[in-house]
Amino acid sequence: MSAWRSQLPRSLSLLLLTAVVVLLSACGGATSTPSKSNNSSTPATNQVLRFPNVGTADIGKLDPASGPDANSNQAVNMIFSGLVRADQNLKAQPDQATSWDVSKDNRVYTFHLRNDITFSDGTPITAQSYVYTWTRALLPEVKSPVGPVLEEAIQGASDVINGKTKTLTGVKALDDHTLQVTLVRPTSYFLQLLTVSMFRPLNQKVIEQYGQTDWVNHVAGSAIGSGPFMVKSWQHGVKMVFAPNPHYYGKKTQLKEVQMSFVNDASTAFKAYQAGQYDLVWGLTTNDQLQAQSMPGFVRKPVLESDLLFFNNKMAPFDKTAVRQAFAAAINKQALAKTIFHDTVTPASTIIPPGMPGSQADYPGIPFNPDKAKSLLKSAYPDVSKIPPITFSYPSSQVTPELAEALQQMWQDNLGVKVKLNSVELTSYNAETTKRTIQFGFTQWGVYFPDPYEWLDLSLLSNSANNNGNWSNPQFDQTVAQAEQTSGDARLALYAKAERIAIDNVGWLPIDHQSAAAIIPSKIHGVTMNSNGLYFGDWSDVYLTK
Where found, per UniProt (predicted)? Predict the structure, then answer.
């Protein structure tokens, strides 16, 4: 989802999650330059934080059920809160639920809610608010691309998805402050799953006032969520301004306002930061990092994100496996990492990044081999001139002209195939991928927590809403289904097998595993980087000093 980030784990112990983050911070050759010490601890008079939402012209998916992309999630995470939240190490921590009980068979979760939680207009949030929200995400008329997948383990979800009922039997409000969830099978990653924004309560009153789809156009001043902020104003294509939620149940933010500007071009955002227009900047391009890495506050960390290509398997010539394999074998990923990314990324032979549970760092995938590439292509098209026209479409904010042109040249040199380039603004690009009209495209896929489920189930299953390339492989589907019926090492082994099937048959073509870079000057307190990018916590520790 472009990446939906999703960010979703499985059988991970808290100890293992901590180890994963340590491993992630060690891989990819990431570097970090700490800020120079700030001698002033005096809070600034004007507690207004200004920062760019880099890589988008606007917030495209504000409804948590719509599967927000990473850019949209920057706003979503400020407005909405839920039962649990992810800490800096991506572990689930209590939020609106103060505690929970789990049955002996690990299928029934009983959550105990705080008694002081409300939406930003003071409307109480009860267990019924969760029943409404989780059921809504499964309704056919909502057309959520993520609800059916994220809630697949909840009892009764399939009946709601199929329109048989509007009652989600596995989710019950035992009373106003007690929510009971029954699963169809033990799901050890369930608490981590609940950190995803789709599970956060929505204000039924606001949705019924404006309608299932139009309510997102009326968020300014509306009580749509229960997070630390509410939307003060939204100037589409320019910026979104946030004010503290007066009814927030948690520790209050020290900020008086947050101004989030939409900046589609990352280099433009960096220049604006240098000109003093923003208090921090992130999403730095590899070229800008060469200059930024000597600046105070620069930091770079590996993130749970990879660059991948997808092929529409229902469009020629990519309906032939050999053609997809040929395009994969024609790419020199090591050269791209060095000359285009300046060694700020790790060349990817696998879909799942190294350091993650179930990762296969030593699996070669489809290595660079021009002779093999030509042979594969000729096996499908003996006369290369007969290959149908090919257009490679990509989001302008995620693929630089240098990267697109380098790929184009590799396919020309190593396959003798001319590929047309089509750069598209991110929001428009995401709309096209949803409609599956792109012949050959790019995905920057990220996840919310470290588990193979997010990389494979959500994107490559035949029935996945995020399967932008219409890739379908019965053996893959069956292997993933088997994995979800097991646990521990056996589950990870099955996921490893499924990933190899996806790589060898080019369900996705991995290019690199990403790092993210930012400049967070010492005057900014409480903002850090983790393996999901910028991390603001619950915002209570975020403030500016002079």
Answer: Cell envelope
